[in-house]
């Protein structure tokens, strides 16, 4: 059985970039850190990541090529602590979320070990374009 691609559909023109984004996002679906996505109104969303142990300085949020990228890297405090058990993850991470056209990233807030990132979606205006037919 062959894999169907968006290019296989003759009415789907120019969606190759979307197909690449979907493949890239599917490959990066690691389970750390856990997150929630909630709809907070008809045109807004909130992504919440569980980032216990990370400070604001350990986190970076960027938008790259219509992707929201959240990175975390804890700094080594240099102490000579000896752990008998280490169950709290202290590893770096990168989480990516593909943003649709019209989705804008708002503010980010740290609260009780949770990072909240607010998103808003603007309503696109309906555009009607008339194409003149030239006599050849």
Automatic annotation (TrEMBL):
Among CDD domains, the record links this protein to: ACD_IbpA-B_like
> Does Kinase count among this protein's keywords?
no
Gene3D superfamilies, alphabetized: 2.60.40.790
Q: Which keywords are on file for this protein?
A: Stress response
Which positions fall inside the SHSP domain?
26-136
> What family does this chain come from, according to its entry?
Belongs to the small heat shock protein (HSP20) family.
Pfam families under this entry?
HSP20
Record's keyword annotation contains Phosphoprotein: no
Which protein is depicted? Hsp20 family protein
């Amino acid at each position: 059985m062959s894999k169907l691609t968006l290019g296989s559909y003759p009415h789907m023109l120019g969606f190759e970039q979307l197909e690449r984004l979907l493949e890239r996002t599917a490959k990066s679906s690691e389970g750390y850190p856990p997150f929630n996505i909630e709809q907070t109104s008809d045109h807004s969303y909130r992504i919440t990541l569980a980032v216990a142990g990370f400070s604001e300085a350990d986190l970076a949020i960027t938008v790259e090529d219509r992707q929201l990228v959240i990175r975390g890297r804890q700094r080594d405090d240099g102490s000579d602590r000896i752990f008998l058990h280490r169950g709290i993850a202290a590893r770096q991470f990168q989480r990516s979320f593909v943003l649709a056209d019209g989705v804008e990233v708002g503010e980010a807030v740290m609260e009780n070990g949770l990072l909240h990132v607010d998103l808003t979606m603007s309503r696109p205006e309906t555009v009607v374009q008339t194409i003149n037919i030239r006599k050849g």
